[in-house]
Structure formats: structure tokens, C-alpha cells
Fold Succinate-semialdehyde dehydrogenase [NADP(+)] GabD.
Amino acid sequence: MHKPLLKQQCFINGQWQSALSGSQIAVINPATGETLGHVPNMGAAETEHAIAAAQAALPAWRDKSANERSKILRKWFDLIVANREDLAHLLSLELGKPIAEARGEIDYGASYIEWFAEEAKRVYGDTIPALNPNQRIVVIKQPIGVCAAITPWNFPNAMITRKVAPALAAGCTFVLRPASQTPFSALALADLAQQAGLPNGVFNIITGNAQAIGKVLTTHPDVRKFSFTGSTEVGRELMAQCASTIKKVSLELGGNAPFIVFDDADIQAAVSGAMVAKFRNAGQTCVCANRIYVQRGIYDEFVQQFVAATQNLRVGKPLDEQTQMACLVNENAVQHANDLLADALAKGGSLKTGGTHQGTFYQPTVIAHAHDEMRLTTEEIFAPIAPIFIFDDEDEVIQRANAVDVGLAAYVYSRDLARTVRVSERLEYGMVGVNTGMISNAAAPFGGVKQSGLGREGSQYGMDEYLEMKYLAIGGI
């Protein structure tokens, strides 16, 4: 790894800074337990300083032409691509993600910067016909102002670029608090952004006390937009705090994705899709297949093929090129997985493979004959445990799939085009993968319904999250 990309200070107003107290947080490699380094343990005072820097930088950045901002973002993208191997190595070390998968995340994260570098030049308004011939009605879009975000540990690169890129493209400035488990990827991005020519104060990163930092970001009057990706419980609290200053809020919260396989599906394709949707990042993604529903007529055959594929999944060290699945993020994640597994088995689930762990390395696990009374039906698993449920008909599975308070992603496998359209429209989810287990794309709007959050990230719609609409009534013409 290229050592200069490993930054152990925070980035505020273009300067690398330590906490005022000198306090630090250790960053641990979850695969080995070794300390990778330290980052500052900052709090409210440093957060205020970062917001002030972003506010001071706002007028000049906002007033740059869209083309000027686009060129800087494009250079940032080029630098990320040039440093792909180092960024992937760093991400793999701090998260325990397989190196091949880490490279995929770097590419995916960079795609948002590339996409919004172009979208910067496509912020269009409207001219509306007026009732009075002496008037003109014009609608313009302007940057909302200083934005802030708290990002999760499971995608320490892509969850940042997905929020920061549209904000900067729109002309906003940004204050980011990345997860304490995986801060180095964020700080490396800031280093490359500075190299790309991003002016001081436009992009600021602070690490440290989550509650203290979060309280300032959500209540400070100069922060006009707040974004969070994480659990529904925490998102609910942060949204309530934002209410004190009526901020614009976008939240990408918990999921509980149903993966529905009808008896007319291509079973091999469904198994392959389920493997991707379930075991990517060791099951630690918000769009992971949480409940796999298989129609009775093909249930046994699907389980047999899925178990065989699971047993062939190579679990190993993150930096091994052959590794397909590595470790969980920490011991708490292991304990959560064990608790869900124990509950499922106590309630009649049949363990087909897996169910063991060594340290943070959890064997991919399949539970057959899962049913709705198990905790893993209503709780987000966030581990490589795949429960497989039986269903009989379309109406039944839709009712069961919708019987949760979240609605982020869902998946449907069927060769019947009419059925895929019917089911997709009736599923109460913000995103539906039809005959595919991969749905994330910079060009598509990512987000959920119900208690999975508010707003969309990515696509042309993601830009609107960082813009205000202004109506101009022009008279006397």
C-alpha cells in the first residue's frame, strides 16, 4: 500500500489536524485483530470548526460555473482510478472485505463521481406559461448550502462518494463524519480530492465521538442538508434532531429484502443471484437477501443447489486473491449472527451447512424450513445466514414479503413477464431486482420506502437532494 494515502489526521479547511484534546481512536483490522493506526477522537468543537470552514468556502464554490466544478470532480475520479489498488488494499485491511470485492467497491464509488461530474452541467430549470402576458414565470435550481453526512462502515468508499459527489456537483460544501471502524478510506478520498484541486473548506472530514459530532451536524443552523446511512433506529433519532432547524434530510436506513423465486424460474440463475445478493460483503449490506422465499414445487431442488453453491464459496483472508467471502466487522457482529441462528434452530429451522465461526470468520450458513415466527424474519440479519422459506402462491408471498416496517430492496425470479410486472408493482420496496441479484448502479435512484428512509441517491434524482427550487415571478414585460 502507498503509505501517503494512510492519513491519521482529520481534514478540515484543507489542513490535516488532530483532535484538540489529542485523544485518538484505534482502527482495528477485523481479520487479525491488529491495530492499523489511529484517527483523532474529535467532538463538538472540531465539528463547529469544520462547519465554519464549509460555510466560508460556500460562496466561492457555489459561484463557480458548473463546468469548473465538473472538471475538478473529473480529476478526482481520475486520481481514484489511478490509485485503485492502494485504495482497495486500504479498504480491505480496515473492513476485512475480500480484495477482489474491495476493488469492485472502489470502481463503484468512483462511478458516482464520474456520473455527477457530468450531471453538474445538467441542472436545468423551467419556464412556465404565465396567465398574464406581461409576466414570466421562471423556475431555477440553486445549491442548498452546507451539507453534512454520517456514513456507515460496510461501504467506506462508495457510501461517501454517493453523497459527496452530487453535493459538490450542485455547488454545495460538505462536512463528513465516517464510521470509526473504517475511517481511512474516507481520509484517503479527501487527500485525492485535495490533489484534484478541490478548494479548502469545500470537503471536510472529522472522526470521533458519534453522539457529539452528530448532535452538532443535525442542529447547527448553517447546515442546510443532512444525510445518513445506517440503522433505522439511529436514523429516527437523527431525523428528530434535524427537526429543530428544519433541515432537508435524506436517510438510507435498514432493509429486510425478500428474495422471491417462483416455480417457473430458472433455478440455476436464481441460485446464482441469491449467492450474490446474500453473501456479498459477508452478508453485511442493506440490500442483502434477508428472506429467501421459494415456491413449494421447486423448494427442495433450490435448497439442494443453493447449499452446494454455498459450500463451494471460498472463505479466506481478505487479501487473498482467491477469497470470495472474508470476515465480519467485529465480535458484536458474530454474536448477533449466533443469536439469530440459535433462535432459528430452536424454532424448528434445519441447519443445512455452516453455523460455525473462527474469530470473526463466519461460515456461510443455510437454514431450511424457515418460518415467520423466527427473529430473522423481522430483523435485519447483516451476516452470512440464509433462511429459506416455502410459499404456495403469489398473493401469499407478496403479503409475507410486505409484512415488515421497512422497504429498501426486493428480488423476484420468474420467467413469466406478466408475473414479474405484477409482483414488482405490488411489493412495497423502493428497488426491485427482476432476475438479477445486483441492483446498485450510479445511474439508478437508490433508496427505500416506509422506514427504510427518505430520498434517493445516485441518478439524476440524486442531484435534486442537494438543490433548492426557486420560483421567479418577472413582471412589467
